[in-house]
Recover the amino acids of this structure.
């Protein structure tokens, strides 16, 4: 009965806007929650009041602030937020006033307590795929309130860094939303992030590609989207380190770097010259390379298609002299043993052996039988 009196007073706009009455109602509800377990009924009734009356946005925000800071009823606040987020998308699509009230209340809570906004983001994530654009704007606004919380920290854990990247991916996807108001809201949040220097370096090129180009936000049909796209791009250019330099200073930096590049190229050329030894200090062949060169030259095919070692080479002068000595010895043996028949037979056998040896030697030196006969004829003519 007492709680119903409080809820009935909250329906009256003038009574709910009074600070003293609001403070008394907050204390009364806190006592009912602590002593009589009125938390679930209180959350349901306050959600229904927020759905029906627009002035309950400010009133309920003050209740939440008192519950968090004075009464220490954080669990009740989380339960109330879950109750609001549990409304179906079909009901919100039919009731535009309730959607607007819920969106305004959730944005106020996320702006005042980013930790609470971060805790309800998993519950609000499916709202990004639903039709009411007010709820999509609400979710993007909560993301915009949570992201600066990561930017204010000097170092992020891998888990926090991953969460920040996922939120930025969601925000980046809705730059091309089907609704112009949602696109403008996403670009407005990007502008706020860039202005507070919370944009990671690796995201700058991706965001620039979304802003500039034939499909970029600068060419959007919505004037609000184009306005925030221009503001975002201007903020990115102004925050660039090169934007503070004049053209003369930029030219000086360019000339300095060009001179440095030329000096590095000269050092590289000099190091290459020193690394290559002079031709006079290089031995043309190693001992093994000489043998390999001879063997390769012997096996090199001739124009006839036969290997080089099968071809007969022209006899040299020492070979000719050796052949002549052998022939003269044979003639002396024949002259000394011409009278004795037995010795003649032995001499013939020896001559046959000598002939075989001579033939073998002649074959080794490259002679044929016809060439040896020609040599004998030449010796007789000389004699």
């Amino acid at each position: 009965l007492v709680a119903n009196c409080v809820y009935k007073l909250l329906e009256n706009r003038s009574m709910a806007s009074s600070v003293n009455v609001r403070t008394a109602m907050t204390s009364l509800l806190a006592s009912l929650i602590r002593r009589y377990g009125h938390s679930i009924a209180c959350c349901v009734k306050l959600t229904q009041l927020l759905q029906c009356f627009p002035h309950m946005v400010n009133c309920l925000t003050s209740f939440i602030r008192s519950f968090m800071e004075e009464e220490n009823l954080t669990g009740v606040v989380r339960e109330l937020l879950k109750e609001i987020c549990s409304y179906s998308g079909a009901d919100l699509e039919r009731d535009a006033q309730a959607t607007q009230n819920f969106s305004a209340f959730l944005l106020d809570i996320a702006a005042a307590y980013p930790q609470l906004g971060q805790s309800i983001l998993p519950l609000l994530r499916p709202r990004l795929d639903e039709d009411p654009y007010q709820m999509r704007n609400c979710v993007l606004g909560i993301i915009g309130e949570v992201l600066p919380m990561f930017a204010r920290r000097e170092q992020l854990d891998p888990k926090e860094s991953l969460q920040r990247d996922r939120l930025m991916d969601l925000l980046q996807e809705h730059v091309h939303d089907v609704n112009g108001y949602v696109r403008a809201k996403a670009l407005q949040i990007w502008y706020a992030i860039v202005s507070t220097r919370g944009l990671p370096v690796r995201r700058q090129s991706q965001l620039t590609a979304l802003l500039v180009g034939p499909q970029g936000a600068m060419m959007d049909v919505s004037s609000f989207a184009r306005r925030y796209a221009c503001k975002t791009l201007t903020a990115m250019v102004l925050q660039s380190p090169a934007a503070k330099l004049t053209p003369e200073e930029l030219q000086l930096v360019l000339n300095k770097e060009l001179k440095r590049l030329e000096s590095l190229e000269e050092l590289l050329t000099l190091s290459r010259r020193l690394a290559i030894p002079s031709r006079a200090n290089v031995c043309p062949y190693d001992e093994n390379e000489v043998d390999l060169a001879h063997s390769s030259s012997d096996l090199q095919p001739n124009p006839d298609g036969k290997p080089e070692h099968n071809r007969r080479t022209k006899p040299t002068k020492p070979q000719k002299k050796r052949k002549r000595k052998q022939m003269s010895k044979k003639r002396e043996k024949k002259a000394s043993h011409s009278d004795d028949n037995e010795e003649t037979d032995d001499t013939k056998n020896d001559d046959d052996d000598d002939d075989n040896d001579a033939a073998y030697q002649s074959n080794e030196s490259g002679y044929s039988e016809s060439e040896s006969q020609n040599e004998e004829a030449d010796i007789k003519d000389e004699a």
Notes: Residues 319-337+350-362+372-383 form one domain. Residues 278-312, 346-351, 353-369 have pLDDT under 50 and may be disordered. The chain has 19 helices and no strands.
